[in-house]
Write a structure and sequence with these properties.
109 residues, alpha+beta, 4-stranded antiparallel β-sheet, two-stranded antiparallel ribbon, elongated
Length: 109
């Protein structure tokens, strides 16, 4: 048995949960905040048998889209900010960061 932890953007969570549910994967949704953009993320916990891991990963990949987003850089800490002109930059966001962990024991009470 494996535990899949998928860190995704909040925007992708409903679509991904629906797609996983259609294939009878049970998920637990946890809310989190990303460190770089300080925006909401979702962590999905998915427990499944080893033979279904690839199917779950494929569903996650197809339903977690990457996209570009404009962000304003953070002003420099300390020092002279007189010459600092914040220029928005385009970065890639979205997609999924996925961890697949072995499960030694599973109990449901």
């Amino acid at each position: 048995m494996k535990l899949i932890l998928a860190v995704i953007e909040d925007k992708d969570s409903s679509r991904l949960i629906d797609a996983l549910s259609k294939k009878e994967f049970k998920t637990t949704k946890l809310s989190s905040t990303g460190g770089f953009l300080k925006e909401g993320n979702t962590i999905l916990m998915i427990g499944c048998q080893d033979e279904y891991v690839d199917q779950a990963l494929d569903i996650i990949k197809r339903n977690s889209s990457q996209r570009e987003q404009m962000v304003a850089p953070i002003s420099p800490m300390g020092g002279n900010t007189d010459s600092y002109i914040p220029q928005p930059i385009n970065i890639e966001v979205g997609g999924a960061t996925v961890f697949v962990l072995p499960v030694d024991q599973f109990h449901q009470f």
